[in-house]
Amino acid sequence: MSEISELRKDIDTIDDAILDLLSKRMEIVNQIGIIKRESNSLIYHPDREKEIIDRLINRNKGKLSASAIEAIFLEVFGVSRNLELPELISYLGPEGSFTHQAAESRFGAVADYISLPSIKSIFDSVETGRAKYGIVPIENNQEGMVKETMDLLYERNLFIISEIIIPVNFCLATKEQSLQSINQIFSKDIAFNQCQGFLNDYFGSKSNDFFVQVDSTSKAAKLANDTKSTAALCSHIAAKIYGLPILFDNIQDNDSNQTRFVILSKVENLKKTGKDKTSFAVKLKDDHKPGTLLKLLQEFEEEKINLLKIESRPQKDTNEFKFWFFIDVEGNKLDQNIEHLIETKKEEITFLGSYMNLC
Ligand SMILES: C=C(O[C@@H]1C=C(C(=O)O)C=C[C@H]1O)C(=O)O
């Protein structure tokens, strides 16, 4: 028998052991699922999943990288959750969008997903119970906060239970073998803007009709797949979905471009992790008096609550020019000082969620 066949026999034995252990794991997951269903409690526990991944990465002495461990176990968790109770996850589409990439990076490839066309439709799907969780973008570190998400968090009754941060990386994907055979590039306006340097270097001499604007980078990938002699500036996941080979990767001008997404749920999911963040919507009561905001912020100081973010948004339910504030602070609602602040200021402060701070 050749050396490879010998080695493959070893792999088969290991795979058998992995499968047996995974089956044992699923037996236990199944028992946890029964308890959760009986007590009507949440299936998804991002804090617990993060704890397992961190522990395994610390324990690891072998050849697997931290990201490989994370990817493998996120799929295991996805399968586990499906066994406990299949739950639908809605994300801002279309398929292949960065929100889809964020969703898969957290819930794995096996989860049940539904792609919806607007941020509002994601809020609707979770509110009506059609989806258990919804994933929407909330902030880009170059462009700032996503206003529609902030406004809907203020208007609706949903909680943020977790955040996901992913780098915004674009690639040039095409079925063509060389740049010379590309006659058109499809993409979305922001992708064209964020890859200016690359486009100038490689396609600086092309006329405007060489660059074709479409609604989304995944539509661009689909078009590039369907049309000869074209390419798409798109996300990795869009290229993957449409089976388009990546000719150039990471072609965005700014490598620190990251987008933050939040997972929305109808019920809050409180668990202290030691590195938490709490989001509030604040509508000041005595906003006609000077110093009202200052007084509120002094309360934060007195409670020793560290402010991470404050952004104002217009109050849309009035014809006056009034504002409410989106505030992130360090800590968890289970912390005494935050709980106390929410309780004493309940007429002004709406709790939007406590979750692990990944920023
Ligand atoms: C099994 C559980 O349910 C889910 C699946 C997990 C897993 O596969 O380890 C971990 C956390 C939960 O998202 C659990 O809560 O422990």
Automatic annotation (TrEMBL):
InterPro entries, per the entry: ACT-like_dom_sf, ACT_dom, Chor_mutase/pphenate_deHydtase, Chorismate_II_sf, CM_dom_sf, CM_II_prokaryot, G/b/e-P-prot_chorismate_mutase, Preph_deHydtase
Pathway: Metabolic intermediate biosynthesis; prephenate biosynthesis; prephenate from chorismate: step 1/1; Amino-acid biosynthesis; L-phenylalanine biosynthesis; phenylpyruvate from prephenate: step 1/1
Domain Chorismate mutase, residue spans: 1-88
Keyword Isomerase belongs to the record: yes
Isomerase found in the keyword field: yes
Domain Prephenate dehydratase: residue ranges: 88-266
Domain of life: Bacteria
Alphabetical UniProt keywords: Amino-acid biosynthesis, Aromatic amino acid biosynthesis, Cytoplasm, Isomerase, Lyase, Multifunctional enzyme, Phenylalanine biosynthesis
Catalysed conversion reaction: chorismate = prephenate; prephenate + H(+) = 3-phenylpyruvate + CO2 + H2O
GO function term, MF aspect, one: prephenate dehydratase activity
SUPFAM superfamilies tied to this protein: ACT-like, Chorismate mutase II, Periplasmic binding protein-like II
Protein's cellular compartments: Cytoplasm
Domain ACT stretches: 281-356
Pfam families: CM_2, PDT
EC number: 4.2.1.51, 5.4.99.5
Job of this protein: Catalyzes the Claisen rearrangement of chorismate to prephenate and the decarboxylation/dehydration of prephenate to phenylpyruvate.
Name this polypeptide is given: Bifunctional chorismate mutase/prephenate dehydratase
UniProt organism field: Aquirufa avitistagni
Gene coding for it: pheA
